[in-house]
Specification:
The complex is a heterodimer. Chain A contains eleven helices and six strands. Chain A is α/β, with parallel strands linked by helices. Chain A has a single domain, classed as Rossmann fold (3-Layer(aba) Sandwich). In chain A, helix 11 links the parallel strand 5 and strand 6. Chain A is globular, with a radius of gyration of 22 Å. Chain B folds into three domains: 153 residues, no CATH class; 183 residues, Rossmann fold, CATH 3.40.50.300; 171 residues, Rossmann fold, CATH 3.40.50. Chain B contains 20 helices and 25 strands. In chain B, the strands form six sheets. Chain B has a seven-stranded parallel sheet with strand order 15-16-14-17-18-13-19. Chain B has a six-stranded parallel sheet with strand order 20-25-24-21-23-22, sandwiched between helices. A five-stranded antiparallel sheet of chain B has the order 2-1-3-5-4, sandwiched between helices. The longest helix of chain B has 21 residues. The chains are: A alpha/beta, B alpha/beta. Chain B: GO terms for molecular function: 3'-5' DNA helicase activity; ATP binding; DNA binding. Chain B: This is DEAD/DEAH box helicase.
């Protein structure tokens, strides 16, 4: 590089507007207002799940798995931020397998939107529940007051763990990083309650039945939580409702991972005689 | 990852090592493994400084280590202070990012077995360990079993050293390679790699290291003038990716090394993540082979070269055979093969490859595009049937094949370290190299220090043209096409800008006239535009004016691009509207070239010459038409035309132009 071109470069950098570079397409374009790290075009391509078709698993299309019934799930419902299409697959690949950790904040913000949707749904439902029985005039006013004050908030976020060997290889647990963002924005504590006992291999290479069988005993209570979890429970204010715990993961495919985690969490809370409502929140729903 | 760090004292003095498996190091320094290599200086003393230190820190300790005589008397206090001093900036930075940061919390269990030769072991209270080698190694009392294990380890080391020769791989890449190529080694590769490292045949380092900025002459001078307040000799220390040379910009918490601020490289993520605690294994430098000066006439006959090609090849062969005194310590020598579009560059490469292979060397051809790799691979395999050819591109099945002849896309160069005697870089000025310091770095790493670089280009960068013309860069010009006809000289057509006539909805009459003339002679027409947005509108107007002609358009955003190009080649489509994506590598017989808005800033001289080079490439129709259509002349257009004229003149003077057309 010669002197002239260095000067020209310097001048150019002064003259070009400071439009930020999009994380996904790399172009300098107007940033999206909701997701500041990407441009408006890339933001427009995100297949948000605003109102899920399947109220159980949060799927954007009709869901044969949930209609099949038979499986009793410990999870009340799942909500996901986006439908898993090829654009989203590329995005998750960049983050999880390539290791571009700049995506942490972006995917976390997206997950946060799913949290808000879940929260709104729960609040609406509680409002309906409270206002439906005996509607005398006095209780109507009471309920109105109570209903407006309804605020649903999760008590705890639990990330789905990855195995030690995967953690070593990847350097981070994507579910934990996503949960971090929601935790910070919403002021909900996060505890890694679980560990993955054995490495189940890449889920993406397996069929549905295989995944379900694999998952049965994949998770256990984390030894580090033997003291921490009861401490945390003890520090909670006494409540007249069950605990509300959200399990966080990057993607919901068959839901077997999340169900297996939920079962362990249920056992843990039962051991301390707490009632629990378990929800799950994932970044994508396939 | 985390590794162990220890210091050993030999007769020459102290040295510091990192270890993937201390057991191997103990054996090595006891002298038990070195028999075959003529090992004779056993370590006198060995101090284990840490058993699990983040790799980046361990490598820093090792690379900055200098032996001092006083070290002999050091106890654990002194060693601990030494490490604390050396790692102070790292620890400070780690604390600042919120880490607990410290090497002191690694007092692991150090109760490893005392191996033969190490007769006293002294465990220091805070995790340091000193061993005194009093009697030296005696192999007599070794059991047969242990002996066999050692032999196996030594054999495995031979295999691994062979597989890694000339390579630069990150740990996951090594694991993938072993799983595919040497599954017997994939179990305990750490021990094997450690032994190869101790033997001096493998460099173990971290993916990212802090390095002091090196500045070349011009930049250093400028920074002094432009930024005097920064101080004269102040040099910045930046974390750089050891694989691709980029400055690492990302810092995140890392579960593998336990640090809060573990740096990673964002530039070469596509080949697997390089980070401060990622193990990078690079083979040690090997000396390059020297080719014997081949005879050019033989080569010309064997490979069917024209006179102009043979001349250039003979110059290049001479360059390869030349002894390398003047470049001692300055890296590989460079040679530019400056051959016009359609000169038959590929054919000229064959004799050069043959010369290097015959001398027992290894050669690499790097080209920017995957299509070129796929097209060239069968031709190379046919030309050199006896050689294993490794064909590398993203997702290629040969990924871990090691061949003396390697054909790769440019990014694959990052996986090599001083592995080749000859590195041929095709289309030097094309997209991936152009303005990408990462690929320049990778190319520099791939060649042996005393090897050679051969650049192939029709339009070398200005800087290189100057070097060649002033004689600083050895080069050979091939000013004529393989068919011996001059290059078509572009004509200029003054028309209004595309943007305006698209708005008006009519094609300029002068443009339709020249197009009609080309269609009348049944030529295939390339119509280049500067913007993708113009393609659709232009196709509409063209179809109105020429309803009987098959007209299509394609661009980088067109998923059906490959099919359209194929259809154009096979004359199903006769007029193709496109952008600079087709400026190179596409050969269509009997073609004419039209460049609209040729004064656009997006077309530089090189790309105009390349586009013009699409015309008249076949023997049957050597005189295609090239038209630069624009409202005004520009420097690039004049430059391109004078470039083409100069090449034609050069060919004429050298008598390369065939008689019948020189009129």
């Amino acid at each position: 590089m010669n002197t002239k071109s260095i000067w020209l470069k310097g001048l150019q950098s002064l003259l070009t507007s400071s439009v930020p570079q999009c994380l996904i397409c790399g172009k300098h374009r107007q940033a999206s207002s909701q997701l500041p790290s990407i441009c408006v075009n890339c933001a427009a391509a995100i297949p948000w799940i605003v109102s899920p078709r399947c109220l159980k698993c949060g799927r954007h299309v009709g869901c044969p798995d949930c209609n099949r019934g038979g499986e009793t799930s410990p999870i009340i419902c799942n909500r996901s931020a986006v439908a898993y299409n090829s654009v989203m697959r590329e995005m998750l690949g960049q983050y999880k397998y390539r290791g571009n950790e700049r995506y942490s904040a972006l995917l976390g913000l997206m997950l946060d939107r799913a949290y808000l949707i879940l929260k709104e749904e729960r609040e609406k439902e509680q409002r309906v529940q409270r206002s439906s029985p005996h509607s005398t005039i006095s209780s109507f006013f009471q309920n109105k007051r109570a209903a407006s004050g309804i605020l649903w908030q999760a008590d705890l976020l639990v990330p789905v763990p990855v195995s030690d060997s995967q953690l070593e290889e990847r350097g981070f647990n994507q579910a934990e990083r996503l949960a971090d963002v929601v935790s910070q924005r919403r002021g909900i504590p996060q505890l890694p309650l679980l560990v993955r006992k054995h490495h189940t291999g890449k889920q993406s290479f397996k069929g549905r039945a295989e995944r379900l069988a694999d998952m049965k005993h994949a998770f256990a209570a984390s030894p580090a939580m033997i003291e921490l979890f009861p401490n945390w429970l003890g520090a909670m204010k006494p409540m007249d409702r069950p605990l509300q715990i959200i399990i966080i993961d990057d993607i919901y495919t068959t839901g077997s991972t999340l169900r297996a985690c939920a079962e362990v969490i249920q056992q843990m809370t039962e051991a301390y005689r707490y009632d629990v409502e378990i929800y799950s929140l994932t970044w994508a729903r396939s | 990852m985390k590794v162990a760090v220890y210091a050993v004292k030999e007769n020459r003095g102290w040295s510091l090592w990192i270890s993937l498996n201390l057991a191997v190091d103990r054996l090595w320094w006891s002298g038990a493994l070195g028999g075959s290599k003529g090992w004779n200086s056993r370590a006198v003393s060995m101090v284990i400084l840490a058993t699990s230190l983040p790799l980046g820190w361990a490598v820093k300790l090792r690379d900055s280590f200098k032996s001092r005589t006083s070290m002999q008397a050091w106890g654990n206090m002194e060693w601990r202070d030494y490490i604390a001093r050396e790692l102070a900036p790292e620890v400070q930075e780690e604390m600042a990012t919120g880490g607990r940061g410290g090497w002191s919390h690694n007092e692991g269990s150090l109760c490893q077995p005392v191996l033969n030769g190490w007769t006293s072991i002294e465990l220091m209270e805070d995790g340091h360990e000193r061993q005194e080698n009093i009697f030296g190694a005696t192999l007599d009392h070794l059991s047969h079993q242990e002996d066999l294990e050692r032999l196996n380890l030594a054999l495995a080391a031979e295999q691994l050293a062979g597989a890694l020769a000339g390579r630069s791989l990150l740990q996951p890449e090594l694991e993938a390679m072993l799983a595919e190529q040497l599954p017997n080694l994939s179990g305990d590769w750490r021990s094997t790699a450690q032994l190869v490292h101790l033997q001096g045949r493998l460099v173990l380092t971290a993916g990212i290291l802090a390095t002091t900025e090196r500045k070349d002459g011009a930049t250093a001078w400028l920074s002094r003038v432009a930024m005097p307040w920064r101080g004269f000799a102040k040099r910045r220390v930046l974390p750089r990716c050891q694989r691709c040379g980029s400055v690492a910009t990302g810092h995140t918490a890392c579960a593998a090394c336990g640090l809060m601020g573990c740096a990673y490289c964002e530039a070469c993520l596509a080949l697997g993540r390089s980070r401060a605690c990622a193990l990078l294994l690079r083979s040690a430098a090997l000396p390059a082979v020297r080719c014997t000066a081949g005879s050019a006439p033989t080569a010309a006959r064997r490979w069917g070269l024209s006179a102009a090609q043979a001349g250039a090849v003979s110059a290049a062969l001479g360059f390869l055979a030349e002894p390398r005194q003047r470049s001692a310590g300055q890296g590989p020598e460079r040679f530019l093969l400056w051959a016009v579009t359609g000169a038959g560059k590929t054919e000229m490469v064959f004799p050069l490859l043959e010369a290097v292979l015959a001398a027992g060397g290894r050669a690499l051809i790097a080209t920017p595009r995957r299509d070129v790799v796929l097209e060239l691979a069968p031709r190379l395999a046919k030309a050199f049937p006896a050689e294993t050819l490794a064909v590398l591109y993203g997702g290629s099945p040969d990924r871990w094949v090691s061949g003396r002849l390697t054909l790769a896309t440019t990014h694959q160069l990052l996986r090599f370290n001083q592995g080749f005697d000859l590195v041929i870089i095709d289309e030097l000025d094309a997209y991936p190299y152009h303005n990408d310091p990462m690929l320049a770095y990778a190319a520099g790493q791939a060649s042996k220090k005393d090897g050679s670089f051969l650049f192939l280009s029709a339009t070398p960068p200005k800087e290189m043209q100057r070097e060649a013309n002033s004689g600083r860069l050895p080069h050979a010009k091939v000013p004529v096409r393989f068919h011996g006809q001059p290059l078509p000289v572009p004509l200029h057509l003054t028309i209004i800008p595309v943007r305006i006539f698209l708005k008006r909805g009519t094609l300029p009459k002068s443009l339709t006239q020249v197009l009609r003339r080309s269609l009348a002679r049944e030529a295939q027409i390339f119509l280049f535009v500067s913007r993708i947005a113009h393609i659709a509108g232009l196709i509409k107007l063209l179809r109105q004016s020429f309803p009987e002609v098959a007209i299509e358009g394609t661009s980088s955003q067109d998923p059906a691009r490959a099919e359209k190009v194929a259809a154009f080649r096979s004359r199903i489509i006769s007029l193709l509207v496109t952008t600079t994506i087709l400026e190179r590598g596409v050969t269509v017989p009997r073609s004419d070239v039209f460049i609209l808005d040729a004064d656009s800033g997006l077309f530089d001289e090189a790309s105009l010459v390349q586009m013009a080079g699409r015309a008249g490439r076949s023997k049957d129709d050597p005189a295609g038409t090239v038209v630069f259509a624009s409202p005004q002349w520009s420097r690039s257009q004049r430059g391109a035309i004078s470039h083409i004229r100069a090449m034609n003149g050069n060919a004429q003077r050298n008598g390369y132009i065939s008689r019948k057309s020189s009129l």
